[in-house]
Amino acid sequence: MAAFRTDLGIDLGTASILVYVKDKGVVLNEPSVVAIDHNTNKFLAVGEEARRMLGRTPGHIVAMRPLKDGVISDYDVTERMLKYFIRKASGKTFFKPRIIVCVPSGVTGVEKRAVIEASNQAGARKTYLIEEPIAAAIGAGIDITQPNGNMIVDIGGGTTDVAVISLGGMVVSRSLKIAGDDCDEAITRYIRRKHNVMIGERSAENLKINIGTACRREKDVYMEIRGRNLVTGLPKNIKVSSSEMFEAMEEPISNIVDTVHTVLERTPPELAADIADTGIVMTGGGALLYGLDKLISERTGIKVNIAENPIACVATGTGKALDWVDVLENSLLDSDSIVER
Questions:
Q1: pLDDT tens per residue, the chain (341 residues)?
Q2: Which CATH number is 293's domain given?
Q3: Secondary structure of the chain in HEC code, one letter for each residue
Q4: 118 and 267 share a domain?
Q5: Does residue 89 belong to any structural domain of this protein?
Q6: Could you tell me if 259 and 295 lie in one domain?
Q7: Residue range(s) defining the domain that contains residue 172
Q8: What is the model's pTM?
Q9: C-alpha to C-alpha distance for 190 and 249, rounded to whole angstroms
Q10: What is the CATH number of the domain that holds 197?
């Protein structure tokens, strides 16, 4: 049976899209990948089905990510993808839904307008934007309306957002276009350089998830992967260790930790004291990288807590913000205010 209206919160991520339905929670979590037939311009697959096609398609079919570094890189494809996910999450409704979409804290006005227009064209009655650190804090169960300092480190696929939040707004923030995807690319380069083997995007991600580490483990763990030998051109199996993963990802991880340190240095003393008491909260898929919380804690001298469900945290906070529109009116940007600007 059709519902009257279903309000949605959307975590429009570079790597995956999560949709939160009011009173139901996160109902959809799929890769933000689409497969398009160039001859007919038709969508052949969206989400997980399209992700399985990455690096495996014939010439006329392209599996692509229409979002890069947390922002829209292909407007038309993003709009069509959003329309698909909105319909899938909300089902049949009599009225268009209100939608809150989260964006990285460092996006420009033009990038914000692109997100709002894509969402409205995809079927939203009205679109609001919320910045990722605010959404992550709400999703982690933090009462951001209090005059207390809370530090959020949200590591996604395309961006890392670090912010200090108090009284419903961001006091200090920094958005870094280095995150999970950069770690995958660093792994691919390392394997090519060290083993003379070319591996695909999915293999690099599997290495990162299974044996990736931000600090050296007491005991090495290993994983076997298959790639193409760059000398012979033939398939080759190699065994990779967690120590190699530490070396491969050292540069992007150092950049993330440096950004956390920089934001702390710019934080007002009273709020820094609050953060020292309560700790830093990590959200996003990158929070699950082995040893990253320990590394940040060692560098800053502050305990680091990983949110209960870091991957769904931003989507949950985005959805919950639908109930907080009045309180968060300074943080939320709606379609009217963006157009006026």
A1: 345 567 889 998 888 999 998 888 899 999 999 999 888 888 888 988 888 887 778 888 888 889 888 888 888 899 989 998 988 887 766 678 888 999 888 888 898 999 999 999 988 888 889 999 999 999 999 998 899 999 999 999 999 999 999 998 899 999 999 999 999 999 999 999 999 999 988 899 999 999 999 999 999 999 999 999 999 999 999 999 999 999 999 999 999 999 999 999 999 999 999 999 999 999 999 999 999 999 999 999 999 999 999 999 999 999 888 876 555 455 555 544 443 33
A2: 3.30.420.40
A3: CCECCCCEEEEECCCEEEEEECCCEEEEEEECCEEEECCCCEEEEECHHHHCCCCCCCCCEEEECCEECCEECCHHHHHHHHHHHHHHHHCCECCCCEEEEEECCCCCHHHHHHHHHHHHHCCCCEEEEEEHHHHHHHHCCCCCCCCCCEEEEEECCCCEEEEEEECCEEEEEEEECCCHHHHHHHHHHHHHHHHCEECCHHHHHHHHHHHCECCCCCCCCEEEEEEEECCCCCEEEEEEEHHHHHHHHHHHHHHHHHHHHHHHHCCCHHHHHHHHHHCEEEECHHHHCECHHHHHHHHHCCCEEECCCCCCHHHHHHHHHHHHCCCCCCCCEEHHHHHHC
A4: no
A5: yes
A6: yes
A7: 143-178+250-311
A8: 0.88
A9: 9
A10: 3.90.640.10
